[in-house]
Every structure is written in structure tokens, then in C-alpha cells.
Fold this sequence. Notes:
Elements: E1 6-7, E2 10-11, E3 13-14, E4 17-21, E5 26-33, E6 36-43, H1 52-76, E7 90-92, E8 99-101, H2 102-105, E9 110-112, E10 119-121, H3 123-126, H4 130-140
Antiparallel strand pairs: 1-2, 3-4, 4-5, 5-6, 7-8, 9-10
Amino acid sequence: MWTLKQYEGRKLLFSGFIVVSFDKAHDIVICVEGNKILLYLVHKNSAGLIVPDIATGVKECLVTTMERISDFYQSTIHVKHGKQLPFHIEYSCFKLKCFISEEAALQISEWVCDKHKLAHRQGNWVVWNQDKIKEQCELHCPGKITLT
């Protein structure tokens, strides 16, 4: 179990908002705003130092948890689970007000948000999808190197 982030000797746990320390450098922030669950991974020194495997693992855990919760609720009302999930994943702009779907984001190398006209490079969201990047490399990269 992760410990809750502490600030001035108090554990930070607010309605709709939680900060959890993952390790000495990474904090996980989860906010609930309306019908959105916002997930942030914050590095103590710089966003560029976020470990991609941590981001991917945290995202996959949240998605799996949401799928299981959805399955449970659907089973209690005797609804068959469809192939489409009752939620979708989006990435936000730096201002956290504009969003792009995960499907669209993974197809492009740069996104300019409509409202703020800020350019966002693919590196801003591929950190959450390391398994997909590794799969693409295995399929498309010429040759493999084996070290013995």
C-alpha cells in the first residue's frame, strides 16, 4: 500500500482529490472533476524525468480497476458486458482544459489544442503507453540485438 502524501505533517486526502507518493521522485495525483477522473504523474524535479514504465503501469492499473468496477456494476443489474467500455481515455493540453482522445493522440506526432493553440508533441502522451511503443518497435524495427 502506498503512503499518502504528507504536507506540513498532515496527510493530503480531500474529497475528489488525492496525492500518493509512488517513490522519492514520483507522486500520483488523482482528481475527480464532474464525470472525469484526472490522473497526473508528477516528478519532483522535472516532467522530462518521469519514468515511462511507472506512468504506463499506473495508467494500466487505473484502467483495469475501472473495467472491473464497471463489470461489477453491470453484473448487479444483470447487463451483459459489451466490448466497449463505459469510459474512454483522453490526454489534456498543458492548460488542462482541452482534451484529445487516446486513439487520435496515438496516431499523430503533434497536437495543437483548439482553445489555446499550444503545440503538444507525442512525447507528452507516449509516456503513458510504453507497452504499445515496445510492441510497435518489435514489429517494425529492423532486427533485434541479443546480448549474452
